[in-house]
Amino acid sequence: MTERKVRVRFAPSPTGPLHIGGVRTALYNYLFAKQHGGDLVFRIEDTDSTRFVPGAEDYIIEAFNWLGIKFDEGVSFGGNYGPYRQSERRDIYKKYVQQLLDNGKAYIAFDTPEELDAKRKEIENFQYDNKTRGQMRNSLTLSKEEVDQLIAEGKQYVVRFKIDAGEEVLVDDLIRGEVRVKSDILDDKVLYKSADQLPTYHLANIVDDHLMEITHVIRGEEWLPSAPLHVLLYRAFGWEDTMPRFAHLPLLLKPIGNGKLSKRDGDKLGFPVFPLEWHDPKTGDISSGYREKGYLPQAVINFLALLGWSPGNDQELMTLEEMVNLFDLSKCSKSGAKFDHIKAEWFNHQYLLRQADADWCPAFDKILKENGIEATAEQEAEVVRMMKTKVVEVVNNDGTKRKRNISFASDLWPLTKFFFVAPTEFDREGDKFIRKNWNENTAGQMRQMTDVLETITDWNVEGLKAVIDPWAEQAGIKPWNAWRIALVGAGQGPDMYELAAFLGKEETIRRTRKAIEVLG
Predict the structure, then answer these.
(1) Which residues does the annotation mark as catalytic?
(2) Do the Cβ atoms of 94 and 86 come closer than 8 Å?
(3) Measured between alpha carbons, how far is 298 from 320 in angstroms, rounded to an integer?
(4) Dihedral angle at the C-alpha atoms of 383, 389, 393, 395, nearest 10 degrees?
(5) pLDDT tens across 88-117, in order?
(6) Residue 180 pairs with which residues in a beta bridge?
């Protein structure tokens, strides 16, 4: 094993959008491959034709392109081990199904759905295995002539794996250690269906991993119960010496309550569970995505990496390259990881602050245009600079409110509207800040201030400060809060000199006079 080049794979089914748990699985495969100088293979497992959803495959590829997880080979990437789409590998699988039949490792079963239902009613907790197969219609109980005749008549059948009792199956898991299972409890899984001439996941998975020289299978915990069957299949084919090492990752759990994270949890609490927005072609339903929500891909990657794995230090913010260097499968947790969507917002906030102010502008500009505002890129970047560290109040899906740092470009609009739209109404009764800071003397002080503003020719932060500070000290007044009311309309916003410099002389004076007129 040590001499083989590391090769791992991510093999989704095109049955819908990519769940965020699948993204994490792909990420861990990527980190492991890059750390060992290996290859990451992208395979499409579409043997279940009844569940195929148009557009799902393209969606998955687009999601990884956005996230920055690059594959070395596979569907749409090329490579020497193709085809990488299982539906294009029918003839390959048939060869290996026949090999198992010829070696007595599998058998043909003709049981109809009705016959199987009847047996389930007859035998409590029925499973098709070494104890019950002798009671069923299959090539172990029928003569060769009967089997050949049924096939010639076009009767549908399946090929089942023949699992013998009394064997101990060892799964050597890189995360969970040794897992031992008695073969007596395993059922004779279906490996192939004549109806669509396609294998089931179990057979296709083993054959593909073997032929594509996969050295490590890193997948979700939900596949752990299937691992003993897969080990037995490797034995049956005589491939035990090149069998990949297994690593079963912990589940992503609900933020509240018990169980696996689902789309319903995201809908309930107001966060996405898919990397990109998904438009369901069957129902027309639209599900939110991390990209459309305003998350940066590097923030999503960083957040997911730490759900179930720890680098062994206190570092939280890491580049993809740093993750590659630090990643260690043995440091993955055995227990599930609670999905903390509040922490995801924190990560996005951190990565937004790392961006240049101008990098916020495409998303911010879109929001401004949606609200009928036209602004230059320079203006937008300046507003971002002044406001990006502010706190915003958000409403949770259950109607409760909480405050947090600006975590998305969309958070800026309610905090920055006054930069582009002058206040016209002032709620003296309902706004505590206005009520406290505008009294019977304020209008007169603001008139004096307006006269001072008219005299300023060097209209920038330094020029404003150089004139207004001495005037306020000499007059013995503190005009800042009242001036904020005039320019903003509320007790929020940046430094007043920076705001006035941004608005310009004419607009600053116009707003100040308007407040005097309305508030009196």
Answers:
(1) 263
(2) no
(3) 8
(4) 90
(5) 999 999 999 999 999 999 999 999 999 999
(6) 170
Condensed to tens digits (0 to 9), the pLDDT of residues 369-392 reads 999 999 999 999 999 999 999 999
pTM of the predicted model over 0.85: yes
**Which residues lie closer than 8 Å to 114 by C-beta, 6 or more apart?**
none
Assess contact for 349 and 411: CB atoms under 8 A.
no
Residue 124, CA atoms < 13 Å, CB-side half-sphere: 0
Of 30, 11, 195, residue with least CA distance to 85 = 11
Q: How many helices (H) and strands (E) does the chain have?
A: 21, 17
Residue identified by tokens 């070395």 is 72
The size of the chain, in residues, is 520
**Cα Rg, the chain, nearest whole Å:** 32
- Which one-letter DSSP state was computed for residue 84? -
**Strand ranges inside 46-141, DSSP E:** 73-74, 106-109
The set of residues, in sequence order, having a beta carbon less than 8 Å from that of 364 and lying 6+ positions away, is 380, 383, 384, 409, 412
Q: What share of the chain is helix, strand, coil (3-state, %, to 5)?
A: 50, 15, 40
CA dihedral of 354, 341, 415, 497, whole degrees rounded to 10: -30
CA dist 4 and 261 (Å) reads: 36
